[in-house]
Amino acid sequence: MCGIFGIVSPVPVLESELDILVRHSQQRGRDSSGLLVYSKDAYSAYRADYPITRLLNEVRPFSNHIVMGHSRLITNGLGDNQPVIREGICVLHNGIVVNDEAIWPQIGKERELQIDTEAIAAIASAHLDAGKSLETLPASILDLCRGVVACALSVPRLGKLCLFSNNGSLYTGTKNHAIYFASERYPLTVIGCENIEQVREAVFVDIPSSATDITICDRRERTTNLIPGLSLSGEEEKLLVYRRHNLRRCTKCILPETMPYISFDADGVCNYCKHYKPRNKPRPKEELFELVESYRRKNGNDCIVPFSGGRDSCYGLHLIVKELQMKPITYTYDWGMVTDLGRRNISRMSAELGVENIIVADDIDQKRRNIKKNLAAWLKSPHLGMISILTAGDKHFFRHIETVKKQTGVSLNLWGVNPLEVTHFKSGFLGVPPDFEEKRVYSHGALKQLRYQYLRVKAMLASPGYFNSSLWDTLSGEYYRSFAEKTDYFHIFDYWRWDERQIDDTLAEYDWERAPDTNTTWRIGDGTAAFYNYIYYTVAGFTEHDTFRSNQIREGDLSREEALALVDDENRTRYPNIKWYLDAVGMDFKEVISVVNNIPRMY
Q1: CB under 8 Å to 512, separation ≥6 — which residues?
Q2: Which of 25, 93, 179, 420 could make an S-S bridge to 8, C-beta 3.0–4.6 Å?
Q3: Where in the numbering of this chain does the Glutamine amidotransferase type-2 domain appear (predicted)?
Q4: Rounded distance between C-alpha atoms, residue 128 and residue 257, angstroms
Q5: What domains are defined for the chain?
């Protein structure tokens, strides 16, 4: 996934305009970068494992007439980079080809790189070698590739640039006889382009032909691995402990006696059950159709869908496109804990539904350093109420949706938040009693938040390491989540009933990918969930799966016996995901798990 951009101009490109394209492209990912430049009758490619703004400053291609490039959010192929060049074909690709391994036997080519984009160049080479026309090439590529393919494919020997996309994450515009392209409309409007069009049909552009091989300059400095491998087994796995607990549980739901603020009546029924108000009782769909009517547009997109690639956001997107008949843009915030599985499902759904995906990627290196600092502080004074600080960095999700609204001019945002994902215990362990009157998963209220932050600061004083450079990132993220006003904001599951079986069956039709280390479909694209649930289960004997399944019991969706069987499976340790998480933040697996295993139990 990345942002791609380019200018094909009869005169030297303007530094100011190229700078606009580069900086907006970097908003989508800054892990690596690349440029393709035409100079002195030949094409040169520059690739680096650092941000595109720095590479641009080093190459300074401002006297040239053709400059294309990308700023990449690394998904696979850490040692490889774009532009991918193979057999005289140059590819800049935004998206993920999720079936790249299956493509190679079909085209009779040998794979040389790890990066999925190489399959696009190889298909192009095989297509042209067979004597087929360039005009039919995009259709051949899109016919073989699954997942998002938004592409700028150059064939210098033919003097052609081909721009095509299967989800609309590519735009073209013109200005003073020059042609511009970018992954989003916004930078082209800032430049002042005319005739801005979303690429739904292939666009072919004449470029200078050249029989000379493209020269390649690779600049590599990175020593850390941004994409740790998913280890399905390892010697360290033996350190993880999973025991079935004989805790007293509510006789109606399955909440245990270690749940914060729990109490039982004479019949053994907990106070959470007695105060529960049904959440999965949607209002008539007609109300939502009426609400969105004024937002519909004859041309262009008419809503934004926050999109993590998880189960509920993917199903929500399906409903919005297929049932509500809206034309959405999806928005993804990547803070470094979105796993490759989550990204692949984003790519699958966006391609299958033909939906543009706007990515805002934070500085992943910095975000992970923040997590490491806070995890190190937590390990010195383990406190179940402070586990949430490990996920504080993702709260800027709420900040950047406002950025996307301003850049696209689309105000309506439709969320696919599961109404049963209510986890009172996370703040309960900090000393916040449950708010049984809470109507939404994300509640507001200044007094409630101030009390929460006061209790958090008290807990932080027990381990001064929390007072580190990540503190502002944490506090500002909490502000945007809990205090900043949200407008034109609706939840799809306020109007469609959340049905787990129906959701799983529907997503299977999209070949939605499931995790190899668990049977649940919840939070499998979240790199943090397996780790924090291991802590909760080890210390308190339950996880968020217990609270979720308890809510399903109260809604009449599950029997108590079914719920107990499910959590017995879902609470099992997920070594691959825990290993990935600790590798990603640079923490020693043995040291971390040893601390967790030695925390006094609550039972």
Answers
A1: 311, 314, 345, 348, 349
A2: 179
A3: 2-210
A4: 67
A5: 2-219 (3.60.20.10), 241-597 (3.40.50.620)
pLDDT in tens, 436-492: 745 444 445 667 777 888 898 899 999 999 999 998 888 888 777 777 777 888 999
What distances in angstroms separate CA 481 from CA 52, 311, 398, 402, 491, one per listed residue?
A: 30, 21, 6, 12, 16
**Main-chain dihedrals φ then ψ at residue 555, nearest 5 degrees:** -85, -10
Question: What is the pLDDT, as a whole number, of residue 207?
Answer: 97
Q: In what order do the strands lie in the sheet with 42-48?
A: 194-198, 171-175, 178-182, 2-8, 66-72, 32-39, 42-48, 215-219
Please answer whether residues 155 and 137 qualify as being in contact, where contact means their C-beta atoms are separated by less than 8 angstroms. no
The answer to whether 147 and 99 have CB atoms below 8 angstroms apart is: yes
The reported pLDDT for the residue numbered 442 is: 46
pLDDT at 438: 52
pLDDT digits (tens, 9 = 90+) for 535-588: 999 999 999 999 999 999 999 999 999 999 999 999 999 999 999 999 999 999
* Cis ω for the linkage preceding 83 (within 30 of 0): yes
Contact 334, 394 (CB under 8 A): no
- Report the run of H or E that residue 414 belongs to, with start and end: strand 413-415
Query: In whole angstroms, how far apart are CA 264 and each of 115, 147, 224, 252, 258?
Result: 55, 50, 51, 10, 12
SS3 306: strand
Q: Which residues contact 437 (CB under 8 A, 6 or more apart)?
A: none
Query: Token pair of 165, please?
Result: 């996309």
Residues of the chain with pLDDT under 50: 77, 437, 439-443
Q: Over the range 510-545, which residues count as b (16 or more CB within 10 Å of their CB) and which as e?
A: bebbbbebbebbbbbbbbbbbbbbbbbbbbbbbbbb
Nearest to 158 by CA among 92, 82, 88: 88
